[in-house]
């Protein structure tokens, strides 16, 4: 089934004392980020985070940007994400996962909240799920961790997303992870880039950074086994593209196009 909802995945993470007119990430003000998530300032937004300080920071920024209809869910050991939040989440127009959620899948596995979000994402055309930093990485099938990969939330199942990508320090990790999971495309977002995913597979790139696309779908199984053993190897049929503002990507067939996205 083709999802009717959309995903907004924001590269980088917020740091420092920010104001709506100042960047949440390079080249984007917080107000611009919020507008990508919900152009209607009266729409219901729910923030989800492990960090109370992140919640307080974003709550203040939303208010300053003119958003008033929002609330937050602070996940911690004494307050897991449970059925008590069903009614609130069922009424939400947008869910915003903040930048500190590496174990969110584990927290959600013990509740039916994830099933609720899946249903809304599949059936509601005006529903948006957004994530910034690690919160954005968690929206895909797998997430890259220091010791390998972890299970993401799976709102998009045919790609691995690195929202903290750097060509010098994280390129090798992204390529290795994609080769070992070559049914997935790899998308490495530098700061200042946003991915907007509609209909489950149509990707639009927006921002002044770039996106590294890694495609290992045609890498042979023998080469994959060699990568598993570690060390330097020779790999054929590994493809890469650098996507910029206006680039479009189909996650099903890995076709890349260049066309401006109208957000009006």
From TrEMBL:
Entry keyword Phosphoprotein: no
Listed EC numbers: 3.4.15.6
InterPro entries: Class_I_gatase-like
GO molecular function annotation: carboxypeptidase activity; peptidyl-dipeptidase activity
Highest taxon of the lineage: Bacteria
Swiss-Prot/TrEMBL keywords: Carboxypeptidase, Hydrolase, Protease
Entry-linked SUPFAM superfamilies: Class I glutamine amidotransferase-like (SSF52317)
PANTHER family cross-referenced by the UniProt entry: CYANOPHYCINASE
Record protein name field: Cyanophycinase
Source organism of this protein record: Chryseobacterium geocarposphaerae
